[in-house]
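User: Here's a protein and a ligand (magnesium ion). What would the complex look like?
Assistant: Let me lay out the input and then the predicted complex.
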Amino acid sequence: MAIATSSPLVQLKHVSKSFGPVQVLKDVSLDMHRGEVLCLAGENGAGKSTLIKIMTGAISRDGGEYLIDGQNIGSPTPAQARELGVGVVYQELSLLPEVSVEENLLMGHLPTFKGIVNRKELRARAIRMLERVGLNRVDPAAYVSDLPLATRQMVEIAKVLGANARIVIFDEPTTSLSDEDAQHLLRLIQRIKTEEGVAILYVTHRLEEIFEIGDRITVLRDGQFITSGSTSQFTHDTLISSMVGRQIEALYPHRERKQFGKTLLSVQGLRLQGSPYPISFDVHAGEIVGLGGLVGAGRTETVCAIFGADPIDAGKVYVDGALLRPGSPAQAVNAGLGLLTEDRKVLGILADLSLRENVTIANLGAVSKLGVISSKKEHSLFQQLVPRLRLRYHSSEQTISSLSGGNQQKILFSRWLATRVKVLLLDEPTKGVDVGAKADIYQIIGDLVSQGLGVVVVSSYLPELLGICDRVIVLHDLGVTGEITAEEATEEAVLHLASSAPTSTNA
Ligand SMILES: Nc1ncnc2c1ncn2[C@@H]1O[C@H](COP(=O)(O)OP(=O)(O)OP(=O)(O)O)[C@@H](O)[C@H]1O
Ligand SMILES: [Mg+2]
C-alpha cells in the first residue's frame, strides 16, 4: 500500500528536449511521491529513458522545471543529482567487473586513514549495504564478474541505496532476468518503498509488472504526456491503447491450421561444449519451435552452436539437407540460416553504422555488384523493410546507436528479412520491445513461416513462447528435458520440465 503524502518529492513540469531537429519530449510533467512506485509507460522511443537521463543529470533539458522537495533545482550535473538523492539502476550496469564487490559499493568514498584504505571498515560498511538488499550470502571480496547477473543488479541497488538515494529509478531492470529473479527484485522494490519511504520510478515493457507493483502510472506517447492516474484506474486494454494510440486486436497472430512442409533444419546429436547430453530436433517449413528453460539452461548456447558461432563437442546440423561445417557462421548464412542474437550490444549492432547499413549488412549480395555496394539499392531495400516495422526514426542515415532500445531490435530483426533465409534462429526477439512492436514482430514471424520458413525462438517470456510456438523443447543443464506441443503447453508444464534432469537420449 502506498503511503504517499500530499506534497510531491519530485516534480517535472513542462519538460522539453530536442536532439538536433528532432523533438523527443514535449511538455512532459510528472510527480513522484515518497513511498510510492510510479510506472512510466510508453512505446519504444516514447522518451522514457530521455526523461530519466534528465532526472539523473546525464543530459540537460531544453525547457521546463525540475523540483525536488518543492525546490527548483535548475539543471543538475550527475553529481548534484546524486547529492540530492537521485539514484538510478540502468540495464547496463555501472559496476566494474574486475573489482571486488566491496570496493564497487564504496567507490569514490573508501574509508581511509592517512591515505590507506581501512579494510576492516570497508568490509563492515559493505556488509551493511548488502544486508539492506537481502544479499547476506554474497562475499564482499568477490569480483563482480564472478556474480550472476541478478546478483550484480542487487549489488547495484545496494550501492544506490547506500549513497542515500531517496528517489530510485529503474529503467527496464527485469529485461534480462529469469522469472524468479524478477520476482525477487519486485519484492525488494516493494520493501524499500514501504520500509524506507523511497520514491520509485519504474520502467518496463512487461505490463504484468506494472500492475503488480505500480501505485500510479504515467503514460508517454511520442514524447508527449498522455495520461496519469492510479493503477486501479487502468486495465491492460486501456493501458495498451493509451500507450500505442490504437487498438491491438490480437497480440499473437492466428495462423490457419498449419501444414508443415519438409525438414529445413535438422539438429542431430549436438553436444554443447562440456555437455554429456546430445540435443536432437527437426524444424519443418512453416513451423515455429520454441526453446524454453531457465537462464543458464543452454538455450542461447544451442542456437549459437547451431549457427556455428559456438564450439561443439559432437553433432551435426543440416539446413535444407546440406550439412553445415562446424564453426563457420559464414557458411551457415550461405546455407540459409539466420541468427538474431539476444545481446545486441555484443553481437548484433554495428553501433557507428547507419540504420541503412545495419539492415543490409547481412544481404550485401542484393545491394552490391562485384563487391561494390550500391547505396541506392541499399536505400530502396531499407525503404521496403521499414514500414512493416513501424520504426520510429528520423533518417536512414542516423547511427543505430541513436535509436531507442526497442527500435534497435527492430532494425536487427529486419536485417534478416532482407536476406533469403530458410531458417531463422531468434534469441529473445522481443527483448526490450514495447507491446505494439511485439504484436508487429509476432505478425512478421507468422508471415515468414506461412511463406515456408522454419523458425526457432528462444524466449524467457513464457506467454510469448506459448503464444507463438507450435512446439516447445525445454532445456536444462545443456540438455533436453522434454518437448511439449502447443496444445498441451502451459506455463506450469514448461516450468516443471525446466527444472527436471536432461535425458541422455532425446528422441
Ligand atoms: N543521443 C541521441 N541522439 C538523437 N536521438 C536520440 C538520442 N537519444 C535518444 N534519441 C531519440 O529520442 C527518442 C526517445 O528515446 P528514448 O530512449 O528516451 O525512448 P524510450 O521511451 O526509452 O524507448 P525504449 O522503450 O525503446 O527504451 C527516440 O526517438 C530516440 O531515437
Ligand atoms: Mg529506454
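Summary: The chain has three domains: 10-85+166-244, 252-336+421-507, 345-418.
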